[in-house]
Amino acid sequence: MNSCFERLKNGLIDENPIFVLLLGMCPTLAVTTSAVNGVGMGLSTTAVLVMSNMLISMLRKIIPDSVRMPAFIVVVASFVTIVDFLMEGFTPALYDSLGLYIPLIVVNCIILGRAESYASKNPVLPSIFDGLGMGLGFTVALIAIGLVREIIGAGQAFGYQLLPLADEAAGKGGYVPVTIFILAPGAFLVLAVLAAIQNKVKINLEKKGKDASKIQSGCGGDCAACGGCASTSGNGKE
Amino acid sequence: MSEIKLKVSSSPHIRSKITSGNIMLMVTIALLPSAVFGVWNFGLSALIMLISTVAAAVLTEYIYEKLMHKKVTVGDFSAVVTGLLLGLNMPPSAPWWMGALGSVFGILIVKQLFGGLGQNFMNPALGARCFLLLSFTGPMTSFVYDGVTGPTPLAYVKEGAMDQINTLDMMIGTIPGTIGETSVIAIIIGAIFLILMGVIDLRIPGTYIVTFVIFVGIFGHVAHPEIGFFDPQYITAHLCGGGLMLGAWFMATDYVTSPITPRGQIVYGIILGVLTGLFRIFGGSAEGVSYAIIISNLLVPLIEKVTLPKPFGKGGEK
C-alpha cells in the first residue's frame, strides 16, 4: 500500500504532469478559461487515465511489444468514447463548453505517456494509483490555472462574481477585467508564472535539505541546475 | 549569442563616448516634440497618462532589479523611453492606471523576464500596447477629441470615405488619435534630430515607408475601386493617419528588436511595409502598425540568420 501512496504523491507533486513534466499542454492552454472547465476536463481525463492504466497493466503481458502503441490507443480511445457519451448525456452544459477537447483526450500525451512508461511495466494496483495521482495532479493544475485566469480575466471564481465589475454607463466604479487572461496569451502567461513559482518553492525546499532525494524528474531537477535568472541571482547571498 | 567569440586586439583602441544611456537620452529628447504637442492637443489627461506610464516603467525596472539583486539600470533611460513610447501610444481618454499597468507588463514580462535591456525579443512598449489592446479593447480604441467621440481619420480611410479627411489637419496633428501619433510634423522633427545625431539611419524607416506606399497604392485600388492607383490623397492619408510615422521612426528602429545586418534591415523594412498594408487594408481594424512591428520583431533572428554577411575571404567561387 505504501507504493500506492507514493504514486499518488508522485503524480500530484513530484512529477505533476503540468507544472513539472509539462505534458498535455494542448488541453491545458485551451480549456482553462474558467475553473469549472478545469474541473470537468481534469476529472474526465482522470477517469480515462485510471481505467486505461488499469486495463493496459492487466494486458501488459499479452500485448506484443511491436504493436503496443496501436494497442494502447485502442484501449484509450474506447474509454474516451465512453466518457464522451456519458458527458454528453449527463452534463450537456460542460460538454458544450469543452467541445472538441473531450475526444482529443485520446491523444493526450499524459495518458499515452503513463501507459508507456508506467502501466505497461508495473502491476495493476500501483498502475491504478499512478493514473489516479497523475489525473488528480492534472486536475489540480487545471483548476489552479483556470482559477487565476477567471479571477483576473473576469473577476469570477467558479462562475461566482467575486469582484464587482465596473459599470461605466451607471457610473459605478469596480473591477475592470483584464480580458487578455481569458484569451489564449493569458493561458501561456499564467502557466509560465505558476510553473516558475512551483520551481522556486521546490528549489527552496531542496536547499533546506527537505525532500532533496525525492526530486528526480526530468525538468524539476534540471531547472535547479540550469538556473534561470530567478534561481542563480540569489545564490550567493542567501 | 554566447558562441560568438569577441576578440580584443592589442592597443591602441578607440574609445567611443557613445553609451546606451546617451542613445536612449537622445531618443527621449527626440520624442519630446510629440509629447509636448500631445499634451497641448489633448490637455491634462494626456500629461497624466504620460507621467503615469513613464513613472510606472521606471519604478518597475528599479523594483525588479533591486529584488533580483541585479545591477540597477534605471539610469540608462531605456525604461523612460519604453514608458514614453507607451504613453504616446495610448488614447488620451483611457484611465491613467491602464497606462501604468501596460508599463508594468512591458518592463516586467517583455523586457526583464527575458534578461533586461538588449535581450527582449519584442519592443516592450508595443508588447504592452497590444496587451492593453486585447485586454481593454473598448477604452483603447475610443478616441475623444474636443469632447466628441469620433472615428479617427484612418477609420474613414478604411471605408474609403475620402471626403471626410483634411490632410493639413493630419499633418499638424489636430485630429483624434493616440497622444503621440497625431502630429506628423512633431514626429518628423524628432526623427530628423535622431538622424542628424547618427542614432538611426534611413534604411529601416525608408524601406518601410516606400514598401508601404507601393502596397497601399496598388491594393488601395483593389479594396476601393473608386480610388485610383496611387491616388495621392489616399496615400498621404495613410501615411499621416494612425501610428505609421511614430512606428516607422521610433519603434521599428529600436536597436534591440531590429536586424543589425544592413541587408537584413532592408528585408525587415519590406516585411513591415507589407504587413502594415495588409492589416490596414484587408484586416479587421483600421490600424495595423503595432501588430506589424511586433510580428516583424519575432522574425528578426531568422532575418539576421539569412542575411549574415560573408567574412572577407570566405565563400565565393572556387
TrEMBL record, chain A:
**Predominant cellular place of this UniProt entry's protein:** membrane
Q: What class of enzyme is it?
A: translocase
- Provenance organism: Mordavella massiliensis
Q: Where are the transmembrane segments?
A: 38-59, 71-87, 93-113, 134-155, 175-197
Can you say what this protein is called? Ion-translocating oxidoreductase complex subunit E
Subcellular localization is given as:
Cell membrane; Endomembrane system
Which keywords has UniProt assigned to this entry?
Answer: Cell membrane, Electron transport, Membrane, Translocase, Transmembrane, Transmembrane helix, Transport
| Keyword Mitochondrion attributed | no
Q: How does it assemble?
A: The complex is composed of six subunits: RnfA, RnfB, RnfC, RnfD, RnfE and RnfG.
UniProt keyword annotation of Cell inner membrane present: no
Write the gene name. Answer: rnfE
Lineage: superkingdom:
Bacteria
Automatic annotation (TrEMBL), chain B:
Q: Where does the record locate the signal sequence feature?
A: none
Q: What is its EC number?
A: 7.-.-.-
Main subcellular localisation: membrane
Q: Which residues cross the membrane?
A: 21-40, 46-64, 96-114, 126-145, 179-199, 206-223, 235-253, 265-283
Q: Which InterPro entries match?
A: NqrB/RnfD, RnfD_bac
Identify the keywords attached in UniProt to this record, alphabetized: Cell membrane, Electron transport, Flavoprotein, FMN, Membrane, Phosphoprotein, Translocase, Transmembrane, Transmembrane helix, Transport
Membrane topology designation: Multi-pass membrane protein
Q: Under which main EC class is this enzyme filed?
A: translocase
Location within or outside the cell: Cell membrane
Which GO terms are recorded in the biological process aspect for this UniProt protein?
electron transport chain; transmembrane transport
**Required cofactor names:** FMN
Q: Which GO terms describe its cellular component?
A: plasma membrane
Question: Which residues are recorded as modified (FMN phosphoryl threonine)?
Answer: T152
Question: Family, per the entry?
Answer: Belongs to the NqrB/RnfD family.
Assembly and interactions?
The complex is composed of six subunits: RnfA, RnfB, RnfC, RnfD, RnfE and RnfG.
Q: What does this protein do?
A: Part of a membrane-bound complex that couples electron transfer with translocation of ions across the membrane.
Please report the name of this protein according to its UniProt entry: Ion-translocating oxidoreductase complex subunit D
